[in-house]
Amino acid sequence: MKIVYTLLFTALAFINCEQAPSENTENTHTVSKEKKTEEITTKNKTEVIDEHTLSNYNEVASKHLDLDLEVNFETKSISGVVTHTIENKTNADKIVFDTKYLIIDKVLLNGSEIATYKLAPLDELLGSALEVNIKEDTKTVSIYYSTTEKTEALDWLVPSQTANKTSPFMYTQGQSIFSRSWIPLQDTPELRITYAAQIKVPKGMLAVMSANNPVQKNDEGVYKFEMTQSIPCYLLALAVGDLEFKALDDRTGVYAEPAMLESSAYELADMGKMVDAAEQLYGPYQWERFDVIVLPPSFPFGGMENPRITFATPTIIAGDRSLVSLIAHELAHSWSGNLVTNATWNDFWLNEGFTVYFERRIMEEIEGKDYADMLALLGFQDLERTLKELPPNFQKLRLNLTGFHPDDAMTDVAYEKGYFFLRLIEEKVGREKFDLFLKEYFDVHKFQTITTDQFLAYLDEKLLKPTNTKLNIDEWVNQPGLPENCPKIDAVLFDNVEKQIALYKVDYDPSVLKTDKWSTHEWLHFLRHLDNSISKDQMAELDAKFNLTNSGNSEIAAIWFEKSINVNYRGIDNALKAFLNRVGRRKFLKPLYEALAKTPEGLERGREIFKASKDNYHYVSSNTIEKILGLK
Question: For residues 296 and 275, what is the distance between their CA atoms, to the nearest angstrom?
Answer without folding.
Answer: 25
